From TrEMBL:
Disordered as annotated region, ranges: 524-591
The protein, known as: Glycosyltransferase 2-like domain-containing protein
Taxonomic superkingdom: Bacteria
Gene3D superfamilies assigned: Spore Coat Polysaccharide Biosynthesis Protein SpsA, Chain A (3.90.550.10)
Domain (Glycosyltransferase 2-like): residue spans on this chain: 36-140
Pfam families from the UniProt entry: Glycos_transf_2 (PF00535)
Biased composition (Low complexity): 529-571
Biased composition annotated in UniProt, kind: Basic residues: 579-591
Length: 591
């Protein structure tokens, strides 16, 4: 493997297993790509020290630039004398916050590699080189640097460079020299200094993320992270409006753009003091809870509530509208009648053909299409999209996309949830469902897997569909199953629950309220146990609490197991049916 391999020569990385890619050896290769260090700064305390460490890097000076983004500092940031040659300050003029500063810095540069580095990171001399070597080989890798948290005053590094007691402080010139000759590694003891505990636990449990699968993105921490500009732009860049949690959200963004994440332990650094999240852990978690729930659908434990809709749905279902309107309605309504809420239906049709011009309603050549438009245009869970709309033709905004080839078959109520759970268990990239005739009924596609194909020489249009499927099968795996096994049935036979019609005669208010009370007794809410009660003492009590930020799981919440129904021919089943019938009769009489 050389830094000049073409995309077609690059090895396919299974899910997040980066190990098939071998980077150049530090000091034994010739860099060619420009690199920009984007450093957000708001009243920075250690800027002189950090820039001094960047002034002694092994990465070529002519290929390196540093953009310090002054995010409203008072007084304004002034560059110290000891710094990389191509260092400049860009002042934020609109918005505020770290995410906005990162986006501002990226926009101010045209370098091929972007690196985020916090203004309290004292980096070793080959830090930039360790990051950049991967980006000379593969365009879709995200590299995470290694760090230890230390107390800077222990070695004479003080905020703003001056010791409060007037004692000697480590000067920027001394920092630059210590980085250049490697003495920086001995300022503190790497083995006994404080690691980024929860991140390193993930690395240790997943062989440095190689076996982390689709959940690798949760370990993206922006203190020292790099990527190509192409990947940065494909992921959309940081969301400027975020104030905290932008690292995790961007981790999800790059994962959905097909990225592979890995830590490089050769990219070492000292983090000068504790991080903001360490100092205010509980407040940070509380702030990020709704943020992650809405913007990071892969963090399934954040979406345990039923009956909710979210900014980014977990599943996007694409349905064609080129069939009789009642058939399409049966299919769409079956999708809306799922026992999971976290999805949206994209109904594809030539909606632009419909205008407000005079037309005889019963002789309308677009009767079916117009009927569907009237039926669903005000349904928040259904989007009416043209066949050429980027939502239809591009990569999905959701982690999973279910594409139906027609509407002759409709899914059972549990189909979507069980299909998603099946794909999550296998972490495969594609599940193809076929009918009895072997024709494709539906495809459940993992967005990250299909987005991965854009980083190789695979045609992006319909002509590349077969190649994309082959690459997804190689990188993530795929399988073909019968649609009937997943609950697909003829649309006209799919029973959809309907509300009862209230056409009762006027009733005495007291008698009506007594009926409500009797009915409420059969539909009472399930309550959690009283404080101090034994767990599970209340029937139907929900066990356990939601996992914390450090206990992230990408596995969808699963309902409690139900006993298998008895055969309708057994005595138990006959007795059960009789009991239900008798109960209905008694309730009618009682009401």
């Amino acid at each position: 493997m050389t830094p000049h391999d073409s995309p077609v020569d690059r090895p396919i990385t299974p899910v997040n297993d980066w190990r098939p890619v071998v980077p150049p050896t530090l000091g034994g290769w010739t860099p060619t790509r420009s690199l920009c260090v984007v450093m957000p700064a708001h009243n920075p305390k250690h800027l002189a020290t950090v820039l001094a460490s960047l002034a002694a890097q092994t990465y070529p000076t002519e290929l390196t630039e540093v953009v310090v983004v002054d995010d409203g500092s008072e007084p304004a940031v002034v560059l110290p004398d000891v710094r990389p040659e191509r260092t400049r300050v860009v002042r934020v003029t609109e918005g505020w916050g770290r995410a906005n500063a990162l986006a501002t810095g990226a926009a101010a540069s045209d370098s091929e590699i972007l690196m985020w580095l916090d203004d309290d990171m004292l980096v070793f001399r080959d830090h930039l080189e360790a990051h950049a070597r991967w980006h000379h080989v593969v365009d879709h890798f995200v590299v995470l640097g290694d760090k230890r948290f230390v107390e800077p005053s222990e070695v004479g590094i003080h905020p703003l460079g001056a010791a409060p007691d007037g004692s000697a402080a480590l000067t920027p010139e001394q920092v630059r020299a210590a980085v250049a000759n490697g003495a920086i590694a001995d300022l503190w003891d790497w083995e006994t200094s404080d690691p980024h505990t929860w991140v390193e636990e993930i690395w240790a449990q997943t062989d440095d993320l190689a076996t982390a699968g689709t959940g690798a993105f949760v370990s993206l921490v922006g203190a020292t992270v790099s990527m190509t500009r192409a990947l940065h732009d494909a992921a959309g860049g940081p969301m400027r409006h975020l104030r905290l949690g932008e690292d995790t959200v961007f981790g999800h963004q790059v994962a959905e753009a097909g990225a592979v994440l890995l830590p490089d332990h050769a990219a070492r650094s000292w983090h000068l003091g504790l991080s903001h999240a360490m100092r205010h852990a509980d407040q940070v978690k509380a702030h990020n809870q709704p943020l992650f729930a809405h913007l990071v659908p892969s963090l399934r434990p954040r979406r345990v509530q039923h009956g909710r809709s979210w900014a980014v749905p977990f599943v996007e279902v694409v349905v064609p509208s080129d069939a009789p309107h009642l058939q399409v309605q049966a299919c769409v309504d079956s999708l809306l009648d799922q026992d999971m809420d976290d999805h949206v239906v994209v109904l594809v049709g030539e909606w632009s053909l419909l205008d407000e011009g005079r037309v005889r309603p019963l002789a309308d050549e677009h009767f079916d299409l117009r009927w569907l438009q009237r039926m669903y245009r005000d349904e928040a869970r259904v989007e009416l999209r043209e066949p050429t709309d980027p939502v239809v033709t591009g990569f999905s905004r959701s982690p999973l996309r279910l594409r139906l080839t027609g509407t002759e078959l409709a899914p059972a109520r549990a189909t979507l949830r069980l299909l998603v759970t099946d794909l999550d268990r296998t972490q495969q990239g594609l599940r193809v469902l076929t009918g009895d005739d072997g024709e494709v009924v539906a495809r459940l596609e993992r967005t990250a897997a299909f987005a991965r194909t854009q980083w190789y020489d695979v045609p992006t249009g319909p002509e590349g569909a077969g190649q994309r499927d082959e690459m997804v099968a190689a990188s993530h795996g795929s399988s073909t199953r019968p649609a009937t096994d997943a609950g697909f049935v003829p649309a006209e036979r799919r029973l959809r629950p309907r509300f009862g019609v209230w056409r009762e005669a006027a009733m005495d208010p007291d008698a009506s309220w007594r009926r409500l009370q009797r009915q409420m007794a059969r539909n009472a809410p399930v309550l959690t146990p009283e404080p101090g009660a034994e767990p599970g003492a209340e029937p139907g009590a929900e066990p356990g609490a939601e996992p914390g930020a450090d206990e992230v799981s990408t596995t969808p919440a699963r309902p409690a197991a139900r006993p298998e129904p008895a055969s309708p021919t057994t005595p138990v089943a006959r007795e059960s049916r009789m009991g239900r019938r008798l109960g209905r009769v008694v309730r009618r009489l009682r009401d």
